UniProtKB/TrEMBL annotation:
InterPro entries: SAM-dependent_MTases_sf. PANTHER family: S-ADENOSYL-L-METHIONINE-DEPENDENT METHYLTRANSFERASES SUPERFAMILY PROTEIN. Signal peptide: none annotated. Gene3D superfamilies: Vaccinia Virus protein VP39 (3.40.50.150). It comes from the Bacteria. It comes from Paraburkholderia megapolitana. This is Methyltransferase domain-containing protein.
């Protein structure tokens, strides 16, 4: 597991990758169209907070890339609460350097594992939230199943795992065995559900706007799905929710997985 080693690459701040091809060797274009880098990050963060992510929560960002979404969570979460897994170390380091610089990045203490086998247990802990944005949009069945079964090992009853995929347009599923990028792959909703259930988990598909029409799915341990409609309606920000919190012993947010280890 690696801590911070900020990239020495020069010129990161000179431009925002406007002229770069998707999938190119620039921290912004690596993860998608550079002109949507801001919105695609913001939508992930907004959704996490709608689902109740507080500053004390722990987040595992699966395939975190250059921290397009991760930068907002790293900023919001308390130090040491953000965890990212990504095969491409350069993308993470260039993201850290570009978004934060050395001092702020070190203050927020994000932890990274550079891995392409979805071995989330390397973090040796469980998480309150898991995010896999634009991973199942490129991954073959075998990898999605592996991701879900490894995710189950680091999930607690309260954990919410949010993921996106591209929905099939013709009733068929991607049957190739390769990760396709920047090409995309498509699956039926029912196929994604069967992958989730195959990992012993449960899921709920839901509508949440996405600039490229990626579809969202919430995954939890069996029997632990929250009221997704209520959460998407902004319940977490409501006065009603605040009153409910005040009725409890403490109004300070907690992390149910704070001391939960995973092997
Ligand atoms: C489309 S980008 C999405 C990045 C990030 N989740 C976001 O939304 O900004 C896909 C990312 O998945 C990473 N990736 C590729 N193979 C992976 C694997 N086996 N496990 C985890 N991430 C992988 C890529 O390096 C890339 O950073």
């Amino acid at each position: 597991m690696s801590k911070l080693i900020l990239s020495e690459k020069q010129g990161l701040h000179e431009q925002f990758g406007e002229k770069e091809e998707i999938g190119g060797n620039h921290y912004r274009s690596w993860v998608g169209p550079p002109n949507y880098y801001d919105l695609i990050g913001a939508t992930q963060f907004n959704l996490l907070t709608l689902f109740g992510m507080r500053e004390t929560s722990t987040l595992l960002d699966i395939g975190c890339g250059s921290l397009r979404g991760g930068r907002f969570s790293i900023m919001y979460l308390r130090p040491g609460k953000y965890f990212g897994l990504e095969p491409e170390e350069w993308a993470v380091q260039d993201g850290l350097q570009s978004h934060f610089g050395k001092e702020f990045a070190e203050r927020k203490q994000p932890t990274f594992v550079y891995d392409s086998n979805y071995t989330f247990t390397k973090f040796e802990r469980k998480f309150d939230y898991l995010m896999a944005h634009s991973i199942f949009t490129h991954a073959p069945e075998k990898q999605i199943r592996l991701c879900l079964s490894e995710a189950a090992k680091v999930m607690a009853p309260e954990t919410i795992f949010l993921a996106t995929f591209f929905e099939s347009l013709d009733g068929t599923d991607y049957t190739g065995e390769e990760w396709l990028y920047p090409d995309i792959v498509r699956f039926r909703k029912s196929t994604i559900t069967s992958f989730v259930e195959g990992a012993g988990l449960e899921c709920q598909h839901f509508d949440w706007a996405h600039p490229f029409n990626q579809k969202w799915v919430a995954v939890t341990l069996k029997g632990n799905m929250p009221d997704v409609k209520k959460l998407l309606g902004g319940y977490i920000y409501s006065y009603e929710a605040a009153l409910e919190r005040r009725a409890n012993a403490t109004t300070w947010p907690t992390s149910p997985t704070d001391n939960a280890t995973a092997k």
